[in-house]
Amino acid sequence: MATSAIGPGFLTQTTVFTEQLLASFGFVILMSIIIDIGAQTNIWRIIAVSEKRAQDIANDVLPGLGYFLAALIVAGGLAFNIGNIAGAGLGTNVLFGISPQLGAVLSGILAIGIFLVKEAGRVMDRFTQILGFVMIGLTIYVMFTAQPPVGEAVTKTFVPDTIDFLAIVTLVGGTVGGYITFAGGHRLIEAGLKGKSALPEVTRSSVYAIGVASIMRVFLFLAVLGVVSQGFALDEGNPPASVFQLAAGNIGYKMFGVVMWAAAVTSVVGAAYTSVSFIRTFSPTLERNHRYLTISFIAISTLVFAFVGQPVSILVLVGSVNGLILPIALGVMLIAAHKSKIVGTYKHPIWMTIFGIIVVISMSYMGVYTLIDGIPSLFE
């Protein structure tokens, strides 16, 4: 789940908003972490205790609702995956000088190879974990090199100069929005971690996953803040790359290639796996052929990249749109949590329900606000 969240959009969104909001972006990160935990702990617990995937839970709440939710998730996952494939191509371009298109194709083939292995789930888990640690380690190095004003960042995290709803919605959307939170929830079901007895471990895992993604977000925020605080201007065509290069020279630029590629290819794997997990239960034929559906999903994303590209504004926009999907998905899960035909004798904690309702209301309000005022400004 964490490495699904940390993709090209994650890197771009964090960099763009840090450059705009400076140290006050720390407040946005803090708010997003609180919302992320509230959303994800609710969703993962309900999936685990019902022992069903989200689309089947939604269909139990209201017939047909699962198909609607699946359509939203798959569409968002495909849009994100095109950006992920593009990011993988950009990473290989930085590392080896090959064209982004060729790098994207090679990365797509690698991702497909993971799902051709008999123990695909286990290989996917280990692959994403290793690359996740590589990303965080390299970003920590660049952060220290950038020498950020940590004291100011801490102060503005609690007393910001400005509050940006678009940034909050985008960060939440990029961390637990759309398909991302279900990448972990559905993987738990497949791995057999389900039922009431598994809830303590499920809850710990959900918070841990948010923690990993948030640590990466904080380190990248401080790295960007350190660079822009020194008066450097970031390259509008590739903001995160310029952060690594300005902070650590050509070595930093190569490090960015590794981080971008690792972030992109792990997100390709996560998006494909999760998107297909939303449709595989709809018929025995889809269930039997889910591996080939996943491979096709990656192949389509790779082919579309050749015609679509990867503009910075689109990556930010997709994150905010995913943030709009979250209140729908979480709202459905909260309703399901109180239906005995879905969760049996399980009693969902009242405080978690209230926490979830607050997240649904706040994300709905901020999401509508960004649609009216925030998103159009990205394209001015």
Overview of this structure, please?
The chain has 380 residues and is mainly alpha-helical. It has one domain: Amino acid/polyamine transporter I (Up-down Bundle). It is 82% helix and 0% strand. It is built from 17 helices and no strands. It has helices at residues 2-5, 8-21, 25-50, 54-61, 65-96, 100-116, 120-146, 150-158, 165-175, 180-190, 199-229, 239-277, 284-288, 290-308, 312-336, 340-343, 350-377. α2 (8-21) packs across α11 and α3 runs parallel beside α10. The longest helix has 39 residues, at 239-277. It is globular. The relative contact order is 0.21. The mean pLDDT is 85. It is found in: Membrane. Pfam families: Nramp (PF01566). This is NRAMP family divalent metal transporter.
CATH architecture: Up-down Bundle
Tally of alpha and pi helices: 17
CATH topology: Amino acid/polyamine transporter I
The helicity comes to: over 70%
Kindly name the structural category: mainly alpha
Strand content: under 5%
The end-to-end distance, rounded to whole angstroms, is 33 Å
Q: What is the class in the CATH system?
A: Mainly Alpha
Order of helices and strands: HHHHHHHHHHHHHHHHH
Can you give the mean pLDDT?
85
Q: Could you give a short account of the major beta sheet? A: none
Strand count: 0
The low-confidence runs, each spanning 5 or more residues with pLDDT under 50, are none
CATH homologous superfamily assignment: Amino acid/polyamine transporter I
Pfam family, one: Nramp
Membrane topology: Multi-pass membrane protein
Keywords: Membrane, Transmembrane, Transmembrane helix
Transmembrane segments: 20-39, 60-82, 94-117, 129-146, 166-185, 206-233, 253-279, 291-308, 314-337, 349-372
